[in-house]
TrEMBL record:
Pfam families: DUF6265. Residues 1-103 form the DUF6265 domain. It comes from Allosphingosinicella deserti. This is DUF6265 domain-containing protein.
C-alpha cells in the first residue's frame, strides 16, 4: 500500500498516500474532488491496538478517528470491520498487480463502493 495512488472517474478524482510501515505504524491521507476543488479528505492510520490487534483508524474531514479492527489478512488483501458503524462497516484494500483496489461497504458486502488506484509515486 505504501506510495501515492490516484483514481479518476466521471470528472471526480480520488487520491490516497500511504507511508512505509515503520514501528508497527502505517500512516495515510486521502482526498477527493473535482478539477482543483477538494470536496473531502481523510486522515488514516493502520496500527496495533492495546491488545496487539491490527486496526484501521479513519478520521474523515478531521473528525475523531473511528476504529475498524482487522478481520482478514492475506498476502494481497486486508479487510477491516466495524459492524457498529453506520457506513462504511467494512474497509478492504487489495493489490491487483500494480493497482490498489479500495472497497467500502456494509458488513455483508452490500452497498459497495470501489476505487481502482494507479500508482503515481
Amino acid at each position: 500500500m505504501s506510495g501515492s495512488w490516484s483514481a479518476e472517474a466521471d470528472g471526480v478524482w480520488t487520491e490516497e498516500t500511504w507511508s512505509r510501515p515503520r514501528g508497527n505504524l502505517l500512516l495515510g491521507s486521502g482526498s477527493s474532488g473535482t478539477a482543483e476543488i477538494v470536496r473531502s479528505f481523510e486522515f488514516m492510520r493502520i496500527a496495533p491496538d492495546a491488545d496487539g490487534r491490527l486496526v484501521f483508524w479513519g478520521a474523515p474531514g478531521g473528525k475523531p478517528a473511528i476504529a475498524f479492527p482487522g478481520e482478514r489478512f492475506g498476502a494481497r488483501e486486508i479487510v477491516f470491520l466495524n459492524r457498529d458503524h453506520d457506513y462504511p462497516q467494512r474497509i478492504a484494500y487489495r493489490r491487483d498487480g500494480e493497482t490498489l483496489v479500495a472497497t467500502t461497504s456494509l458488513a455483508d458486502g452490500s452497498k459497495a463502493q470501489s476505487w481502482r488506484y494507479a500508482r503515481i509515486k
